[in-house]
Amino acid sequence: MPSTARTHRPAPALLAVFALLICIPAAAQTIDAAATPHWGMYLQSARAPHHVAAWTLGATLDWQDWRRSLWGAQVRGYWDFSASRWSARGQGGDFDTTVLGLTPSFRFIPSAGRSRWFVDAGVGATLSNRRFATPERAFSTRFNFATHLGVGLELGDHRQHELQLRLEHVSNAGIKEPNPGANFVQVRYTLHF
Questions:
Q1: CA 55 to chain CA mean position, Å
Q2: Which end of the chain is more exposed for a tag (fewer CB within 10 A), N or C?
């Protein structure tokens, strides 16, 4: 029996929700870069080895009034809330799971916060509706940790647009074996309000 190749596309509902959220009144056009709290909505595409793809819709919220200086850079903290759909050709067919995440993150901005370039890093937790599996590996837990490192650029007159390239590792940190983990390459677009 011929196998049907499945393309990994974002669910239409996910794209519709994102489109609706970015149409929120033109508050994004009048952003003050120093205003707090600063929040955003993002859409992210990711790939991992073994034919794994993920689409994520998420939100970020700055830690109000939390700023530090480190080696000439400004460090800011923010919460990252996410809902992802992981897909793969899995054991016995295609396999999908929904993954919710919460990650406290730090943003390092050179030139005391004046640069449009930044580096992000964070460690958080995820919970999926079922254990994720591919033909090559299977997670043993629904709860996992997620660590990321990314580099990005803020765009627009008020820095309301953001593009970011990230590397993320997801695993259960040895809570239960097997613990194969997954390494994702992620591309993210964020609109700040």
A1: 9
A2: N
Q: State the CB neighbour count (10 A cutoff) for residue 71.
A: 7
Instruction: Point out which residues pair with 97 in neighbouring strands.
Output: 86
Cβ neighbours of residue 1 closer than 8 Å, sequence gap 6 or more: none
pTM to 2 decimals? 0.78
The sign of the dihedral angle between the CA atoms of 85, 86, 89, 90 is negative
Helix and strand numbers (H, E) in the chain are 1, 8
Q: Which amino acid, residue 94?
A: D
Give the whole-angstrom CA distance, residue 89 versus residue 134. Answer: 6
How many other CB atoms sit within 10 Å of the CB of residue 189? 17
Q: What's the distance, CA 137 to chain centroid?
A: 22
Sign of the dihedral through C-alpha 19, 24, 30, 36 = negative
CA distance 169 to 160: 27
Pairing state between β 182-192 and 39-48: antiparallel
Which strand (E) or helix (H) includes residue 12? helix 12-22
